[in-house]
Design goal:
By secondary structure, the chain is α+β, with helices and mostly antiparallel strands. The protein is about 35% helix and about 15% strand. Helix 1 packs parallel to helix 8 and helix 3 runs parallel beside helix 8. The longest helix has 17 residues.
Length: about 240
């Protein structure tokens, strides 16, 4: 997601490093990306398995990888990349990339609460989708648009999210304090079409190989019962409408 450096020497070095990384097996790449962790499940979760679909909006760095993780999660019926935290007028990639809009690159996860709970989604989010201890950055990407944030749909989601952050901090499962903020009353705006399904459409893109594909390895390893091989794609949903 970061733009390449402008100097020729830096570009050549970057190209060599990315090409080398592309040849590594996924298991080795998992050690390069943000470290996934086995963490306790949330002690507080949704009170009942409600009828109908629900949504969770999460920000954890570049939305390509977060979207890819939840597209491969059972019980999720849709995962859409977009922006949350700012105004509708500034919800476009070039403006969000300045870091001055208040938006964070986010993913709207639509899920069936009879198959997966909000707490389970947060469990995966904190464990494998991103590193919640990195402030205003994630991996190679820096700026408030890459912050770790949760945008709750209602008061119950806000309570669950805040309680889980407190639980994980108290348990000390991460080497530093979690910086994830809960930001209520923020609308979600879908990103441009070229950002949707990016991991699935570009599996050999160097950024994806280094930073995002290892997350799928971790999802399958840590949450084998939640992993599914065939992702739910935004393009497939659009073509069926």
């Amino acid at each position: 997601m970061t733009r390449p450096a402008t100097t020729a020497s830096t570009n050549r070095l970057r190209a060599v490093l990315l090409a080398a990384a592309a040849l590594l097996p996924l298991a080795s790449l998992a050690a390069i990306a943000e470290e996934a962790r086995v963490i306790p499940a949330p002690a507080r979760d949704e009170t009942t398995a409600q009828e109908g679909l629900r949504t969770a909006v999460l920000a954890g760095g570049c939305f390509w990888g977060v979207q890819g993780v939840f597209q491969h999660t059972k019980g999720v019926v849709s995962a859409v990349s977009g922006y949350a935290g700012g105004d509708k007028a500034t919800a476009e990639y070039e403006r969000v990339s300045t870091g001055a809009t208040g938006h964070a690159e986010s993913v709207q996860v639509t899920y069936d609460p009879r198959q997966i709970s909000y707490g389970r989604i947060l469990h995966i989010f904190f464990s494998v989708a991103h590193d919640p201890t990195q402030l205003n950055r994630q991996g190679p990407d820096t700026g408030t648009q890459y912050r770790s944030a949760i945008f709750p749909a209602d008061a119950e989601q806000a309570r669950i999210a805040k309680a889980y952050v407190a639980q994980l901090n108290q348990a000390g499962v991460f080497p530093a304090a979690i910086v994830t903020k809960t930001e209520a009353d923020r609308a979600f705006f879908p990103a441009e079409a070229y950002h949707q399904d990016f991991m699935e459409r570009n599996p050999t893109y160097p950024y994806i190989v280094i930073n995002d594909r290892p997350k799928l390895v971790d999802l399958k390893r840590i949450f084998p019962d939640a992993y599914r091989a065939d992702p739910v794609l935004v393009s497939a949903a659009r073509s069926s409408n």
